[in-house]
Amino acid sequence: MDIPVKKLHPAARLPVYATAEAAGADLCACLEAPVSIAPGETVMIPTGLAVEIPAGYVGLVFGRSGLALKRDLAPANKVGVIDSDYRGELKTALYNHGSAVQTVEPGERIAQLVVVPYLTANFTETDQLSDTARGVGGFGSTGTR
């Protein structure tokens, strides 16, 4: 599938799959200088890119496991949603979960973009839902083991 990508900044780097079987393409920070993120702080990191996700698909922006594990940095909203009609710059709000200041360098891989098809549901109001074995149980009701 071809996805048009517009560079909004000359230093922007196109999304790249790190391996042949990777589901997510890496998104890189498009910065003029390093950006520091204090513990408990969220900073919006630009990519310098806009994309044209095809109709019937959605771009999902996930954190990178190494960034979260090694540096305590993860997207503040956990998963970003890029709708097919959005044409603005892709940005990632990185949150510092740790106790030390973290620095994001220009060109550093900050997130990954996964493009998947989706279905649009028709929501219909009702007074009754069908019964299931689970019922209304939630929030840990099925146990931990």
Automatic annotation (TrEMBL):
CDD domains: trimeric_dUTPase. GO terms for molecular function: dUTP diphosphatase activity; magnesium ion binding. Its EC number is 3.6.1.23. Gene3D superfamilies: 2.70.40.10. Pfam families: dUTPase. It comes from the Bacteria. Residues 13-143 form the dUTPase-like domain. Pathway: Pyrimidine metabolism; dUMP biosynthesis; dUMP from dCTP (dUTP route): step 2/2. Substrate binds at R64, S65, G66, N77, V81, I82, D83. GO terms for biological process: dUMP biosynthetic process; dUTP catabolic process. It catalyses: dUTP + H2O = dUMP + diphosphate + H(+). The keyword Transmembrane helix does not apply. Its cofactor is Mg(2+). Keywords: Hydrolase, Magnesium, Metal-binding, Nucleotide metabolism. InterPro entries: dUTPase, dUTPase-like, dUTPase-like_sf, dUTPase_trimeric. Belongs to the dUTPase family. This enzyme is involved in nucleotide metabolism: it produces dUMP, the immediate precursor of thymidine nucleotides and it decreases the intracellular concentration of dUTP so that uracil cannot be incorporated into DNA. This is Deoxyuridine 5'-triphosphate nucleotidohydrolase. The gene is dut.
